[in-house]
Structure formats: structure tokens, C-alpha cells
Queue: 3 jobs
Job 1
Amino acid sequence: MKILSVNCGSSSLKFQMYEMPNKDVLISGRFERIGVGNSFYSINIKGEKKQIDVELNNHAEAVKYLVDELLENKIVESLEEIKGVGHRIVQGADAFDKSVVITDSVLNKIDELSSLAPLHNPAAIIGINAFKEYIPNATPVAVFDTAFHQTMDEVEYMYALPYEWYTKFGVRKYGAHGTSHKYITNVMNDYYKTNKKLIICHVGNGASITAVKDGKCIDTSMGFTPNAGLMMGSRCGDIDASIIPYMMDKANLNSKDIDKAINKESGLLGISTHSDFRDVSKGVRENDSRCILAYNMYIKRIVDYIAKYYVELEGADAIIFTAGVLENTPKPRFDIMNKLSCLGVIPDIEANEVIGEFKKITKEDSKIDCFIVPTDEELMISIDTYELVK
Ligand code: ADP
């Protein structure tokens, strides 16, 4: 059965088509700069890549090109073969604790939740409608980045703020990256053949850590928005909330200025002037003091959260390193494991040199196993969609 996995951003559309249940990738690609000029798309069919400049005024035009490519390249003979389209939805709040088939009422709810994800949910709705127009027979499915975190207890998800902020305005922890954390949980449960206590570190440009027990999320580091918890590429993560009104008064900033500062000008970028971890690493190698400070702050916060979740889980069986930074770089993994030696973590230095593939990177006598596990959110979306469609 052919299933399409789709991730719509405000000016982009990424897709991957799978033959399920074998999980074979038939085609993947991305449309970029939709509606902003100089748009183009790139596709990859069995390792063969091409990039084409085209005018893309909206997501529907991108879907039209996608459909044409599917037919021209004989990925499908007819669009009827595509049985499901799974859409990544950033914010499902407490309305969705699992993936669902998109009905009119689901679509309305996703729309209602747009105030909690103003850049993402509206883009997803545009994508859902565009695919409905061009592939009307495929069942649309919503896969929420927040759903996996809905198992948190209120002790974890409530903020110590006026209670009415929660009841009237929905202010609570929702988490993010849930599709990735769920995928990793499934991979690890398959590996161990049973549920284990896991601490999953998804550290890319955005970054979050989740504590998992019995296959369920019990706590996660992202919060009401994806700007909580860890220090990220350009997001500050946890800070003292009173810094915000202080800086608004002192530097005459409004809420938009503050939002930009804490989301786009902070994190690694704010401290070192580089948001990409590769640039920070280069600075560290060249002895740049601000890069060294940024790196040390970044690692410390990851270790702090692992320690917190180790206690919350009453011990952990495995720590998993995933996403752009931790899949691809041995040094931060080693430094994190080293700082956890008091918990009995013993790194396997040679194994830790592996990049981007599943690998156990601790010694046999380590009290906690550590792993590199490449995440695959597109595949997770496709699996959930397949399960609902079949
Ligand atoms: P997101 O999905 O949040 O945009 P990714 O998981 O793709 O982020 O991670 C992107 C980040 O991962 C980059 O900003 C870069 O810092 C880091 N990264 C990606 N590839 C590598 C690599 N080969 N070596 C070191 N860092 C990398």
C-alpha cells in the first residue's frame, strides 16, 4: 500500500512516499520558498536527485507538481494507488492523544489550535486541503507532535501560574518532537523486546529530552511552546521568566521583539554568534572562548535534564542520542556520557566514533546503556497513517 508522509511549513512542503508495510521509500523531496519567490523543488528517487526551479505561489501548486512527478516517474500508475496521506501537525494540545483520520471536525480543531502554533498549524491546514483537492481518494491522517506527551501527569504538565491561565487560555506543558520520541521508543522496545526506562535526547537545531516508562512519556523538556528546556540553535530554553518584563522595560522592547530575541537570537547563536552546531564545534577546536562557553552551557543543560529524568524514572535502562547534532557528532556524546560517570555510565570510545547509524556506545559493564539511534519522523507518520488506513 502506498502512503505519503507530508510535512508542511509556512513556505515549504517536505514529502516521502512509502510502500507499506515494507517501509520502502519510493520517492522523497521538498518544495521550498513557496509563495516567497525563487521557489524550487528537489526530489530523490532511489538515490537519483534532481532540483528544478519553478514558480510556486501556494502549496496547492506544489502538490500539483508533486502529483505530476509521481505519475511521470511511474511511482504510481494512478493516484488511486495512494491510500493515505499522513500530515505532521505541530500542535494538537490536549485535544489529541493519538493520530487520527482528518474529518471536518478534526480540521476545525486543528484550526482552533492555531493560536498555540501560529506558524505551523495554518500551514498544515493549507497542505491538507491541497492534497484533498489533488488526491481526493487518499485518507488524510493527522499525526501530532504533541500526542505522545499527552500521557504526562498534571504534576508534570502544570506551571505554577494562576490556575485560570490553564483553564481559560490553555497554558500548560504540551511538549514537542513527539513523533520522533515515539519512533525511538518503538525502536528501543523492539531492540529490548520489552518496555524499558528510557531517556531520549533529541538534539538537532530544536532540542528536547523525554523520559519514557512503560512505552509512555512521563515528562519532557519542551513546554507550552518549543522554547523550553534545553539550550538550542537559536532558542534560549529555560530561563528566569522575570527577565522578560525586566528587558521590556530596560530596553524598551515589545512582545514581538522579545519573541524574536528568545526564539531567533538566543541559544548557541546568542552566546557564540553561530546557531549551527558544526560552526560552534569549529570555534571550540580553534579555542574561541565564546564558542567554548556556548558548548559547555549546551552540554551542561543536556546533562542536567538527563539527571533530572534519571531521578524521575527512579533509574534508567538506556539513554538515546538522536537528531542532527547527537546522531552525527561523537564529542558531545562522549562529553555527556563522561559527565554521567557518577551514574555508572561507561562509554565505549571506539563505538562512539560511529556517525548516523544505530549503535550501542557504552561498554558491557556500563550501568546504563547508551545508543545512537537515527530518528525517522517521516516513517513514524507513515506507520501511523498505514495503521489507520489499512
Ligand atoms: P531540526 O530538525 O531541528 O531543524 P536537525 O535534527 O536536522 O534539526 O539538526 C540540525 C542541526 O544538526 C544543525 O544545525 C547542525 O548543528 C547539526 N548537524 C547536522 N549534521 C551534522 C553533522 N554532520 N555534524 C555536526 N552537526 C550536525
Job 2
Amino acid sequence: MSKNYVIGFPRIGEKRELKRALESFWSKKIDSVELERVAKELRERHIKYQKKAGVEFISVNDFSLYDNMLDTALMINAIPDRFKNISDKTELYFSMARGADKIAAMEMTKWFNTNYHYIVPELSKKDEYKADIFKIEKEYEEAKKLGVKPKINLIGPITFTALSKRVDGEDVFEFFGKVLEVYKEVLSLISKLDDDVLIQMEEPIFVTDLEPKVLSLIKFTYDSLCKVDENIKIAVITYFEHANEAVRILADTPVWGVGLDFVYGEENLKSLDVLKDSDKVLIAGVVDGRNVWRNDIQKSVELLKDISKKIPKDRIIPSTSCSLLHTPFTLKYEEKLREDIKSWLSFSLEKLDELNLISKLFFEESLSEDEEKLYEESKKALSSKANSSFVHNKEVKKRVESIKSYDRELPYEERIKIQHKELKYPILPTTTIGSFPQTDEIRKVRRDYKNGFITEEKYEEAIKRYIDDAIAFQEEIDLDILVHGEPERNDMVEYFGQMLNGFAFTENGWVQSYGSRCVKPPLIYGDVSRDEPMTVKWITYAQSKTKKIVKGMLTGPVTIINWSFVRDDKNKSEIAKEIALCIKDEIEDLQNSGIKIVQVDEAAFKEGYPLRKSKIKEYEEWALNSFRLSVSSAKASTQIHTHMCYSEFNDIIKTIEAMDADVISIETARSGNVLLRVFKEVGYTHEIGPGVYDIHSPAIPTVEEMEDRIKAFFEVLPKTQLWVNPDCGLKTRKWQEVKPSLRNMVKAAKRLRESS
Ligand code: GLN
Ligand code: ZN
């Protein structure tokens, strides 16, 4: 019989039902009973979908009302002190996730190199762990009632610990013994749920370059977990990269199976020899769980056949490469997508059918009529994509092949002199990161225009009015370098995607980012090119309203790529070059229209870093080159800024330096000088705007506070190298907060200028 395995399923719902229910619950429109009713309905529906698609290994406990790491913390009673007085379970759960009256929420951070954010558990010496499998038991029983014998998903103890933080010291692994003990308790309780139970232990930390200390825990951990009860079988699942070091160890433990990602971890093939000599079942990830393109069925089947040359077929289970959490739910509701593009895609539901088809073909079972049809469709779609003139553009290819230089016209030392002469800004120049508050009014204008409720003329009038006000305000407070405020932009990537060829947008392609929040990344399906200027109209309009300099605002190629679903038939380095050429042209147009400063945002530069050190060089090379190519059209006198949304530059400072932006603004407001020092240590000479206040908080910083902060920067960097700006865009703030804050910021800069 054919077998197949789904690591996890999205839980937000095909129409984001869970999002709606959560938000209604938080705003007290529904109670917890109603919330649980919706949640249960979704869990059941999702199991039914998988069952219908012929999935054999279906999960429970992949569901979560907020996040699985948070669920795990509660499963073992790792509750930070500040929440201990909250007795109501639901209230406790959401307070940990989102904070409560005067109690700070737990921190959130990105799940490996995805855009999903997990809650970072906080461990402390005082913790007393105890097992609570209420949630698991409930979901297990639900599934059984639907006639499914599910596997139970758990975050593995090593990954859980590695991703937690310690609140009373440094080494979180000091508590590992305690964590392991409570996991044993959990397993022991689980073993009583049924005659035999399969437990999926997700250990994605195994795909990173593990320290020997952590590696040395694997054998002991899985030896002892397997021993808890003979009723349980454990599958250790990894994803996003290869896990060769860990596999070697796991092969020598009693675990039942090992899950490897053959889509993003081709090197996993090297582990086959190790597994061959063991008795392990190989859960082989061949259906891409984090991208949206249709699977090349034949290729996947061939891959499985290759694998089966080493591992007997009866020990192979085809699976998704990771949880389907990272892809949108279904194509079913896409009505506006061009038919051909739609035919090239596969979201979670469609991937189930692909997986089923792959396993049928691999295990050489006969196909049903529907499966035959899907197979034919799939082949047709792949060939249509391979030959489509929407995808392949000879001109773009030619241009990329003929790129000659990635360099600016002069080196920084010469450029900056020319720029100072041309731009004449004072020392400690003041500016902002680009966006101003996105008011309800401006959102409505954009929406109405998109829906055809207002004419283009009315739309443009409204945008211009916003820009007029933004410029007037910036002049009034005497800011040095102004911005237009980005009122025409919904999102810094989507805006550019909509103007470029090669991008498509879904109506319902939502992916959970954290809690109830979802994002709808653009799809880069084809060669990217630009037909006409994308920002010149608005920037030059703003410039026409003032004698001061207005800074043009663009999004860089690396950020556009990292926040999109990218085609899988071309290297990212190539795609990045195509996008870079568009930005290069845009800068040229801006410059020719009299714009003297252009900022190219690379908010997501750092998050694209690979999980394995050995791959960093390759990433840095294309990321760096594409940024440099983007700005290579700027004349020496045109000043290029870039902005990055973080402050931890220690590992990447050389690359940041090599980007060669004239000015970089970064997010230091919360970390202060500690992280700034690295710029001094490497002898970074270009100008820097370390954020002088935290835009994530509604608080209005005083002149004195900001003066102090800027003065503190002087301890690290010379005054002549510093800019004064907030630490990110202001679009999420209100004008009542932004106005006094910026007014104070300008005052602080002026005081320090005068006192020097
Ligand atoms: N220019 C963008 C803005 O101000 C930058 C946003 C970001 O870095 N995330 O909104
Ligand atoms: Zn930012």
C-alpha cells in the first residue's frame, strides 16, 4: 500500500476563520466557548481534508491558537513568573502571547529562516516542570472520532531548549536535564492514550551547525525517550536543510523514523548510507512545504526511486518537506489570478493531492481516474510554464548577461566630499526612514481607488494632499532631509511588485506570520522587468513643494526576494540581478528628475541568511552584488542611503561595509551602544544613522532623552559620521505621536550641533 506523511497542516483556516475568531475573542465579541467551537471545527475540517486526499500520517497538536512553542512551554509548565497569578488558562495563554495589563508579552522571533514567528520560552532556575497533555489528549480523541489514528506532533526537547532563553543566566542547556525529564513524563502520559502511538519529534535545530555540546545530547536524549514505554514510536523530523551530523547519531538510537528534507537539504542524500544499515524508516520530504509552485511529479518520483536504491521501499514514506504552515491554504478561492499562473501553483490542499500522487506512482499502484487527470494536468502545467512568454523574456536575459559593473562611479571617500558640497547638510543631519502614519483616511483612499469607487484623479488628489501636509510639517520642524511619506504604498514590497513584470498577487494566499497575523507574499513567477518609472511621480511632486532635499524611497532586491514566494526554476542570484536592474533604472530616472538622495531599503537583508555556515558565502555574494548593482547608476553626487531593521551586525559587518551605501540607518534605539561598537571596531567610515528613538512604542521621547542618546553615540563614533533619525518607518504610529517626537528630535540635534 502506498504511504505518505504530512509533517503539519496550516491552522489559520482557508478563509482565515481562526484569525477572525481570535480577534473577536480578544475584543470580547465572542467568549472562549465560541472560540473553541471554531477551533474544533477547523481541526476537524483539516483532518477530513487530509484523509480525503489519502494522507496516511495525519497530525494532531499541529494546531495552535497562537503558536506551538508557546503550547510546548505550557505543556511542561514553563511559565514565567510574571504570569503566575493568572489562574484562568485561556487568559494565561493569551497573556503570555500578547501581554496583559502591565505585564509584558513574551518575546517573539523568527522560526529558522521562515517568516513565521514563534514565542520564545523563558526558562529559569526556579521553574518546576510538570507535564500537561490536556490539549494533546483532546485533539487525539477528536481525530479518533473521525476514524483517523493520528501521529502526535511535539517540538523536540533539544530544539525547544535551544530556542528558549534563560532569564537568570547564560546557558539555557543547563536546564536540559529537567526539560528531558518532563518530556519523559509527557511521553509516558501519551503512551496511555492508545495501544501504540506515533510521536513526531520536530528537531529542526539539527539542521544548523550544532555545537559539540548540543550534538552530544542527541544520543542520550533519544535513547531515553524511546525507552519510556514500548507503546510509543518516535519519528525525529528535520527540515529546511540537511541534518547529516544528527542522522549519524540517531541511526544508533531506537527511534523508529527520521525525517529529512530533500527539497532544501539535498545533502541529506549523504545520509542514506548511514540509514541503509539501520532499521530506520525514512520520512522523505519531497513536496516543497514552503513554496507555492507545482511539484515536478516525475522528478520527485525519480528522486524517491534513487533513494530506494539504498533504502528498501518498505522503509520509505514520501512526505512534505516541512509543515505546510508556511504555504497558503488553497487555490480554490483564487478568481482573479491569470489561468496559466494559477495552473503553475500548488498550495497546501493541492500539495496533499500531489503527495498522494507521488506516493502512488512510487509504490507503483494504479491511479484512479482523478489521479490520472491530475498527473496529466501537472505535466501540462509544467511545460506551459517552461515555455511561457510571460515567464521568459529574452531582453531581460540579455541584459543580465551583459552586466559589466557593480561599482559606483567613484570610491566613497571621493563621493562623500562631492556630496557634502552638493547637499550642504549640517553635521548631525536629521531625517526619517520614509513612511509617515498610515491614517484610516489614506488607507480608505487606496482601497476605494483599487475597488474602482473613486477616479484616478480623486485618488491622486488625495495622495498629493497627504504629501503636501507631510512636506509642510517637515519644513515647519526644520528637518534637514525630507521624505514624501509613502502614502501610495500598502506595503514596501507589494508596491514595487505591482509595478514590475514577473510578479503576481493572490487574493487569498495568506500565510501565518504570528498569532492571528497573516501575510500575503507576492509571487515572483517570471523574469522581472520594469516598463516605466515606479516612484518618480510622487517623489518629484514632493520635491516640487520644497527647497529642501527630498529623499527618494525604494525597496532593495534582497528584501523583495526574501519577502516573496520566489520561482524555483531559477537561482535567486539571477532573480536578484533582474530586480536590481529595475532599481538601477529607477535611480537613474530619479536622479535625472533632480532627486539628490535615494534610500534603498534592505529591511530583510539579514533574515535571508542561510542556516548553515557553509552557505553564507554564496548568499552574501548575491545579496551584496544585487544591492551594489541596484545603486550603481547613482552619480557620485547622488547620495545613497540604505535602511535595515535591526542592530545586530556583528557577524555581517564586513558585508554591510561592502554594500558601500553612503549612509545607513539602523535600529539601535533599544540596544544602544553595545551593538554600535562593531562599526567602530572594523573602522567603518561611511555615515550612520543609529535610531535615536524606538518607533515601536507610542511613547513620545523628550528632547533630553534623545540628546542623551545621541551623546552616547559620540562615545563610539565621531559626530561628523552621525545622522539623527528614528529607528524605523513611522507608518504604524499616529500623527499625534510622530509630530512631537520628530519636533523633539530636531531640537535635540540642534542643541548638540550648537554645543559643539
Ligand atoms: N521606508 C520604509 C518605511 O519607512 C522602511 C520600512 C522598514 O524598514 N521596514 O516604512
Ligand atoms: Zn526598519
Job 3
Amino acid sequence: MNIILLGAPGAGKGTQAAVICEHLSIPTISTGNIIREALKNGTEMGLKAKSFMDSGKLVPDEVVIGIIEERLQNDDCKNGFILDGFPRTIPQAEALDKMGIVIDKAISIEVADEVIASRLSGRRVCEKCGRPYHVVDLKPKVDGVCDDCAGTLVQRKDDHIDTIKARLEIYHNETEPLKDYYQAQGKLFIVEGQDKVEDTTALTLKALEA
Ligand code: AMP
């Protein structure tokens, strides 16, 4: 199954992606993680993306479309994949269509802006594997250390409060119209984000079976 996860930054896409990944044994492809990795490795693409990312703006469509086009050719995508953070604009969705990629479901995780702001400012991510945590709601077993790979947990630069507002505005203007795009194709599934992660997970699994 080819799945898109929609939702504002901090809505819990990464966490739900991990659930689906385990449930269906298909890989998660996160453009944010790919760009952060490129930045860590000092590649040209990473350096180009840095200023956009740090200020909470979207990286130009042609850059992320190129990343996805290359990544989807990997063998591990043969039986399906989960896209986390792509597409984020209508031209990106149209690019997927042009590549001949058929999307089965677009699952949108819906969370109010105020909740997002508090979540993102408390979010920590593993600098090695990208797994998300939260200082209050989703703590690792050992403080500051990733449960999966023992990497160090850090706060992303774009999770500072001033940048969060810009990211939410961009989400509403550029990304939210994708809900209509996939609704028109009969592929949209709405998951209302719950206070408890496991409750959201139950709704996501229901959407997969629908
Ligand atoms: P994320 O980890 O998904 O929140 O992405 C972090 C940042 O990476 C975003 O704020 C953008 O600057 C950039 N980015 C990731 N995915 C995309 C995308 N599909 N289109 C444009 N920029 C993106």
C-alpha cells in the first residue's frame, strides 16, 4: 500500500508513520529526515536547504521532488511506502502523479494549532535516527537517549516557538489544500489526533483497514 501522511508539523505524523511501518512492513520516507541527513553530511543539497529549513520555510518544490523521485526507485519501496512530510504543496502532489505513483490512502492527522505549538516546543528528536519524543508526553526510557539506537535526543532549530508560527501558517496556506486534492480522488482519511498517542494509533489503524 502507498500511503501519504498529511497533517501540520508536530501533528504526530512521525509517530504514526512508525506504527504503520511496523504494521504493514513498508518503509517510511520522510523528506525532512532526508534533508537533515544531507545537511549533517554537508552535501550541496543539504546546504541549499538549510536556510529554508531553519526559518521554517518550505524547500523549493524541485529540490524535494528530486529527492522523492530518487528515493522511490529503491527496492524497499516495491511493496509500498509511507510518505511523511511529502507532498506539502499541490505541485508536489502533481509531480507524484506524473511519476506514475498511485497513492492508495492519504491519512490526515488533525490537531489544533495551540496543541501543536506546545507539542513542537517540547519535542526532541534522535539526532541519529530521527525518532521523535516529547519532554512530557513521550519520554524515552533513559533521559536524553533514543530507545531504538541510543542516539542523543536534541531540539530541532525549527522547533523554537517563533519558527513554529511560520510553519503553521505555511501548513494552512500551502499544505492543507492537499486534503481537497485527495478528497476529490476518494483517498482522504481524517484521523483526529487524541491526547494519548495510543488512541490516535487506534484510529490510524482503523483508517488503514477502511
Ligand atoms: P519536517 O521534518 O517534515 O517537519 O520537515 C522539516 C523542514 O524540511 C520543513 O520545514 C521544510 O523546510 C523541509 N521540508 C521537508 N519536507 C518538505 C517538502 N515536502 N517540501 C518542502 N520542504 C520540505
